[in-house]
Amino acid sequence: MTEPSQKSILTTRQGHPVRDNQSLRSVGERGPATLENYQFIEKITHFDRERIPERVVHARGTGAHGYFEAYGTIGGEPATKYTRAKVLTQAGKKTPLFVRFSTVIGSKDSPETARDPRGFAVKFYTEEGNWDLVGNNLRIFFIRDAIKFPDMIHAFKPDPVTNRQEAWRFYDFVQHHPEALHMVTWVKSPWGIPANYRHMEGSSVNTYKLVNDEGEAVLAKFSWVPKQGVKNLTSPEAAKIQAEEVGHATKDLYEAIERGDYPEWEFCVQVMADGEHPELDFDPLDDTKRWPEDQFPLLPIGRMVLNRNVDNFFAEIEQSAFGTGVLVDGIDFSDDKMLQGRTLSYSDTQRYRVGPNYLQLPINAPKVKAHTNQRDGQMAYRVDEAGSNKHVNYEPSSQGGLHEAPQPGKDYHQYVEGHLGRYQTTYTQSDYKQAGDRYRSFEDWERDDLINNMVADMKACPEDIALRMVWHWWHCDEDYGSRVAEGAGIDLKKALALPPLPGKPAPGERRSGPTYTSGQREEGTQQGADRMSLAK
């Protein structure tokens, strides 16, 4: 292998050579991620500022107001068994909310018939402050490490020279990331074009934790199931709509609410014991994988109704701002590396796009009064209430300033031990398995539409990319790869003769975990035992 020239070596904006552009630094393979991820922070915060004032992603969208009504139960048991979040535990409690639906890649005026994931962002205005649940319609994503997000979006966005979305750029990225095969299989099927927003599922995508009064936690994934049913479009159906209307989904939602046909979704959660799960062939924190519903059923916990359109599109929809870090007590972060990266990126984007005081805007402000010591900044038009002494904007103070709130229950303490480094997951066999399972689960007409879309894309790609993609699809399912190769005129034997991707295990193999010397491992184990002893 020839050494790359100095000119072709990736660096940071400080000129430092980037030796690993695939993984966040984390404590052990499963995390959590660490704050000193300078390379990631530099990369993601620059990416957050690439568009002014339009959103970098999710630029095209619409929204509506409504309410959430909690059932007070999870799987037939009191919700308090799993969580102390009041928004979920009090049966019959109605919480006002705002939802923004969107496409991902297109600009603000792009068509809503685009083959693209759909954003599904919900802002609950709870009595304990806002809770933002920010996800999409497909329950999974293309990548599992947040450091890859700018690269992915750059590859999916228009070519910086031609200003056109090019299939070869999309698949050039995908061919190097087998974990994306599952999401691509969904997106290139009819599920990639929802008929409208009312007949669309929603999901948190990322894994969170529910925490109860005793400080006990379970892993959780949230889903929205439309009571109107799910409807999708084939490519010909989408093309017919786009010929007459580029904003058909916005129109459909607005008109349905105006005539009193209020869309409704059931809110469901999947739960799993916290911790590692060696019995599974995937990591539950990997957001490119779905939790099988036969093992982890969707448990209803409430319903959402959208019953009011906005009064002003710009003020309420364009300026609405969401963040995955906006949680309420009883709902917590998991070590999902995409979630941890999004939590920095989303709020950073809003401060840049809307301004540091974006939470003062009515659409973003909590319904309960905010009491902070944060001050000033661009476009500040009020000061949060700050205790009985307006001279004191710091804490602690004996002079009437703000003070910390009491703990509502036992704190959740997660024990973390591991070697700090950059890790790629050892769970790789499911990158092909779940994509193949999905292909086989489709109805015949869905598979036909998927193959037609994939064939058209492969014909637009250079031979080396098309061969590698056929290799990937064949390892997901032999029929899948063979049909794409036949339709696109690709030599299947030539494709299957390709070696596995450099640095990645062959499909079906499990990557070996990181290696340590016996001294390193024993030292780490003893240090962990010492810490556990001190904690007791």
Characterize this entry briefly.
With 536 residues, the chain is α+β, with helices and mostly antiparallel strands. 29% of the residues lie in helices and 16% in strands. A hairpin with a 2-residue loop joins strand 6 (118-126) and strand 7 (129-136).
Question: What features would you describe in this structure?
Answer:
The protein is an alpha+beta fold and 536 residues long. The chain folds into 2 domains: 25-360, Catalase HpII,  Chain A, domain 1; 428-536, no CATH class. 29% of the residues lie in helices and 16% in strands. It has helices at residues 38-48, 86-89, 149-156, 167-174, 181-187, 235-242, 248-258, 313-318, 337-353, 429-441, 444-459, 463-476, 478-488, 492-496, 518-535; strands at 25-27, 61-70, 73-74, 77-78, 94-103, 118-126, 129-136, 202-203, 208-211, 217-226, 264-273, 299-308, 331-333, 420-422. The strands form 3 sheets. Strands 2, 5, 6, 7, 8, 9, 10, 11, 12 and 13 form a 10-stranded antiparallel beta sheet that branches. A two-stranded antiparallel ribbon has the order 1-14. Strands 3-4 form a two-stranded antiparallel ribbon. The longest helix has 18 residues, at 518-535. The chain is globular and about 80 Å long. Mean pLDDT is 88; it is low at 514-536.
